[in-house]
Amino acid sequence: MKILKSFNMKEHSNMKVGGVAKEFIVVEKKDEILEALELGNKSFILGNGTNTLLNDGDLNRTFISLKEIDYIKELGDNRVEVGAGLDFDKLIEYMEKHDYSGLENLAGIPGSVGGLVFMNGGAYGTEIFDSIDSVEIVDEKNSIRTIKKEDLKFTYRKTEIQEKNWVVLSATFKFTKGYNKEIVEDRRGKRDERHPLSMPNLGSTFKNPEGHFSAKLIIEAGMQGYEQGGAQVSTVHPNFIVNNGNATFEDILNLIKKVKSKVKETSGIDLEEEIIIVKD
């Protein structure tokens, strides 16, 4: 376990915005997590930082990274245990190597396996929980336990894990055989073409309201391309907010508020953030 004091968090967010954290702890073995949580002050588990907006002031928090918990373990019967810190694209590559199928629609989604499990990430009608058998978590009592999928509550972009602020340590997946390379290449190609991947961003900013697409609502509200300081509603994909180079935390927050206000005004629909916002 590594403990770093007064740590600059800017490079640990895809948005390239972030202040100085009280501590940054890197957990290198799963059994270190309980000690890290006990040491931490207002602990926050950070995955790859692909969907987390960090305040650019002083952060009176201990950030805990699980990136070193990145193993894959075969369990037999097409079941695979995966550490929370594994980059999700590496899981897709592993699926190809072993002819596993089930999560091809999610190919190209940035982030860690634990991050996607935490909020039930998904795309193209597939959610990560579609292929999950069980999840190993640290609960509110700092106890490590494994919960079967059928005993967990989860819905669109939301899980009981998130609501109770549990920590994902690993997930066990149950795959079928028949990896579909064409789907993977198609999904990755569409992300490259339709998402502003060359600029700092946090992925989809808003969840899709039931029966609607946030991107379409934002366009209809006349907000695509709208700028607030160094932050902008992407001209490539309107559900992405990008950093034009010097965006501040307040720029991004104010832009989110403006987009929500305009969409509410034009459609009557309340947008809900998909990203995680850490204010202090």
TrEMBL record:
<keyword id="KW-0573">Peptidoglycan synthesis</keyword>
<keyword id="KW-0274">FAD</keyword>
<keyword id="KW-0560">Oxidoreductase</keyword>
<dbReference type="GO" id="GO:0005829">
    <property type="term" value="C:cytosol"/>
</dbReference>
<feature type="active site">
    <location>
        <position position="274"/>
    </location>
</feature>
<keyword id="KW-0132">Cell division</keyword>
<dbReference type="InterPro" id="IPR006094">
    <property type="entry name" value="Oxid_FAD_bind_N"/>
</dbReference>
<comment type="function">
    <text>Cell wall formation.</text>
</comment>
<dbReference type="InterPro" id="IPR016167">
    <property type="entry name" value="FAD-bd_PCMH_sub1"/>
</dbReference>
<dbReference type="Pfam" id="PF01565">
    <property type="entry name" value="FAD_binding_4"/>
</dbReference>
<keyword id="KW-0521">NADP</keyword>
<feature type="active site">
    <location>
        <position position="157"/>
    </location>
</feature>
<dbReference type="InterPro" id="IPR003170">
    <property type="entry name" value="MurB"/>
</dbReference>
<dbReference type="InterPro" id="IPR016166">
    <property type="entry name" value="FAD-bd_PCMH"/>
</dbReference>
<dbReference type="Pfam" id="PF02873">
    <property type="entry name" value="MurB_C"/>
</dbReference>
<keyword id="KW-0133">Cell shape</keyword>
<dbReference type="InterPro" id="IPR011601">
    <property type="entry name" value="MurB_C"/>
</dbReference>
<protein>
    <recommendedName>
        <fullName>UDP-N-acetylenolpyruvoylglucosamine reductase</fullName>
        <ecNumber>1.3.1.98</ecNumber>
    </recommendedName>
</protein>
<dbReference type="GO" id="GO:0071555">
    <property type="term" value="P:cell wall organization"/>
</dbReference>
<feature type="region of interest" description="Disordered">
    <location>
        <begin position="186"/>
        <end position="208"/>
    </location>
</feature>
<dbReference type="GO" id="GO:0008360">
    <property type="term" value="P:regulation of cell shape"/>
</dbReference>
<feature type="active site" description="Proton donor">
    <location>
        <position position="204"/>
    </location>
</feature>
<keyword id="KW-0131">Cell cycle</keyword>
<comment type="pathway">
    <text>Cell wall biogenesis; peptidoglycan biosynthesis.</text>
</comment>
<dbReference type="GO" id="GO:0009252">
    <property type="term" value="P:peptidoglycan biosynthetic process"/>
</dbReference>
<dbReference type="InterPro" id="IPR036635">
    <property type="entry name" value="MurB_C_sf"/>
</dbReference>
<dbReference type="InterPro" id="IPR036318">
    <property type="entry name" value="FAD-bd_PCMH-like_sf"/>
</dbReference>
<keyword id="KW-0961">Cell wall biogenesis/degradation</keyword>
<feature type="domain" description="FAD-binding PCMH-type">
    <location>
        <begin position="17"/>
        <end position="178"/>
    </location>
</feature>
<dbReference type="GO" id="GO:0008762">
    <property type="term" value="F:UDP-N-acetylmuramate dehydrogenase activity"/>
</dbReference>
<dbReference type="GO" id="GO:0051301">
    <property type="term" value="P:cell division"/>
</dbReference>
<keyword id="KW-0285">Flavoprotein</keyword>
<dbReference type="InterPro" id="IPR016169">
    <property type="entry name" value="FAD-bd_PCMH_sub2"/>
</dbReference>
<feature type="compositionally biased region" description="Basic and acidic residues">
    <location>
        <begin position="186"/>
        <end position="196"/>
    </location>
</feature>
<comment type="similarity">
    <text>Belongs to the MurB family.</text>
</comment>
<keyword id="KW-0963">Cytoplasm</keyword>
<dbReference type="GO" id="GO:0071949">
    <property type="term" value="F:FAD binding"/>
</dbReference>
